[in-house]
Write a structure and sequence with these properties.
By secondary structure, the protein is of the alpha+beta class. The protein is built from three helices and seven strands. The protein has one domain: Hotdog Thioesterase (Thiol Ester Dehydrase, Chain A), CATH 3.10.129.10. The strands form two sheets. The protein has a five-stranded antiparallel β-sheet with strand order 1-3-4-5-2. A two-stranded antiparallel sheet has the order 6-7. It is globular. About 20% of the residues are buried.
Amino acid sequence: MSYEFQITRRVEFCETDMAGIMHFSNYFRFMETAEHAFFRSLGFSVAHSRLGLEICLPRVHAECDYAAPLRFEDEVQVRLLVERKGRRSLTYQFRFSRVNGSDPQEVARGRLTVASVELQADGSLEAVPLPKAIADKIEQAPAHLLGDGVPTR
């Protein structure tokens, strides 16, 4: 079972604003990239229909708090922790750390909550339990790893 995953990325020029700072919306793209890689590490795809699972995991909540800017060519580590595993949802905590120098600096924390749903014939979504195959491979992170959810400043 797994509750943690991390990736390292470099901030690309196209991800910055006119001040050369990573645009706030790209933190959410980085979160999604980490989530997709987490699922691949477990042997799944977020395109669950490829695996015969008729569910999808739409976002029902997203947030991010910023403590320091990331800039073009900064190397950033994105750490995903499973904050909560419910019967029909997952909440992830993300920690962003600049890792250019010898001393990593946490620059932001984010959170995503996804719901396990099935697409109905009329186009509506109905909440369903997480498939056993997925639920069996994911666990909630220990409380001491989650902290208070606020980035250090």
